[in-house]
Fold this sequence. Notes:
It is a single chain. The strands form two sheets. This protein has an 18-stranded antiparallel beta barrel. Helix content is about 10%, strand content about 50%. It is globular and about 65 Å long. It is mainly beta.
Amino acid sequence: MALKKIGIFFIIAVFCAPAELLSQPFSSYKDVVNYKHLLDSSLSSPPWKRTLIKDFEKDNGQPLFLKRILHDALLKHHTSLYDFEVNPDILFAAASENQNNTNYFVSGGGANIRYQHKQSFIFRGRVVGFRQTGLITDSVRTTNNLLQDVLYSQATPDGYKALDLRINAVYRPSQFFRINFGVDNQFAGDGYHSVIQGDQSPPHPFGRLSTSFWKIDYTVGYHFLKDVAWPDLSETYRKYMTTHQLNFRLHPKFHVYAWEAVVWQQEDTLTQRGYDLSYLNPVIFFRPVEFQLGAPSPDNVLLGLGFRWQPFKWMRIYGQVMFDEFYLEEISARDGWWANKYALQLGANAAFYPGAHYLHLRTEFNMARPFTYSHIGSMQNYGSRFTPMAHPLGANFGEILTTLRWQWKRLGAMARIAYAQVGQDTYINYGQNIYRSYTTRDTEYGHKWLQGNLKSGVSADFRFMYTINPKMGLKLALGARKMTYYELDRDDLSEIYLRLSTFLPTGMKQLYRTK
C-alpha cells in the first residue's frame, strides 16, 4: 500500500536533520501568539512559536502613524492596571484557478480587541466579514449556512459572503483555577491536524473550567453545538457536548493526557433533554452515566489518549489515539467487526535557529478506521454544522503530511504537502461519511481500513510571505495551492494566489474536502 511505502520518508524527514542547525533550543510554548491557542492550556498550545515574528527594526525617527502601520498595534493603551489594544483585520485576495479557468476575488475586514487586567482577566474578541466573488463553490454549504470555520454564511449569485465572530475570555480567581468562556472552536494536541479535536469546525459557544496543581492539569468543557439531521441539510438543530481533559506531567520532557467526550441531541423520541444535568458533573466518567440512560445508548461517548515527548531541545514527538468503540475481544479476533472504530496520530516537530533564520519541520501520520465518529444519526455523531470535529477527512482515511517553514526577519516561506488515501462511500455505506448512520452498513464483519471506492491524492500549498506588521499579523503572500476533492465525480482545484491579510478563512488554506 502506498501509505506504507511513504513511511520511509517520514523517518528520514524527522530524524536526519543537519547537526549544525541544532544550536538553539525551542522557545517555551507559553510564548505562543497564535490566536486560537493563546488562551488554551499547555496541552492545546503548540510547542514553540508558530507566528511570532521578532521586530528587528530600530527606532529610526519614523512618523508615529508609520510606526503603527509597520511595527505596532493601531490603537493601544497601557497602565499599571490594564493593557488595551485594537487592531484592524483586512483580507484582500485574488486567485486564478484551473477547474473552471476563471479568476476569483475575496475582500473583507473587521477588528480584533485585546484587553488584559493585571494577571486575572484576559479578553480577546474578533469580528470579520468577507465576500468571495467570481467562483461559485460550496453552494449547499453557503445556502444553508454550513460553511466551515465561520459563524454565518450566505450564498450570492456569484459566490458567497460570510461573517465570523470569535470571543475568548479568561478569568483567574486564583493561581489554581481558571474560567474560560466565549465563542470559538477548540483544538487538542500538538499536530497540524488532530484525531481528537480539530479546529476546522464552525465556532460555537462554550465554557471551560480548569485547575492545575502538582503535576496535573484538568479541564472540563461545555459546548453548545448545532448540526443537520442528515440527509436533510436545510435546517440545523441543537446538540451538546461535554469534554474532560486530564494532563499528567510525568517528566518535564514527557507528558501524557486522557480526553473524553459525550455528544447528545437536544430532543429525542421521548423527551426534550436540553443540556442534560447528568453530564454537568465535572469529575464523573461518561460511560456509567450513558449506561444509566438506557440500552442501546442514545448518546455518543468517545475516549482519547495522547502524549508529547521532547527527547532533544530541538525535537518534539507526539501522538494520539481516539476510541469510538473498544472491545478487545473483537479487535483481537481480526475479523473486521464494523465497530472496531478508532483513529491514530503519530508525528514529530523540529525547530532550528541557524543565525537569524528560523526553520520549522513537521511530519505527521493520521488515520481513522471506517465508521469512526459516526453514530445512529447525525445529531449524535462527532460533528458540528456538517463538519467533522476531529480530522477534516472524516473517517476511513490515511494521511501523511509534511510542513516546512523558513523565516528570516520579515521574509518567510512555507511548503505543505499531504498525501492521503480515502475509502469513499458509494450507494453502499463504507464508513467514510460520518454523517451517514452506521445502521445502514451492509455487513457486521469483513470491514477493512480504506475499503470502498479508494481515491489517492497529493495536495500542496507553497507560499512566499512578507510580514508588513508583526503586531497585527499583516502579511503579503504569493503562492500556489492544489486542493483535492475526495468526492465522487469532482475535479481537484489548483490555483495561484496573491493575498494581503491579517486572517485566513479555512477555505483558503485547507488541502482537501470530502463533501
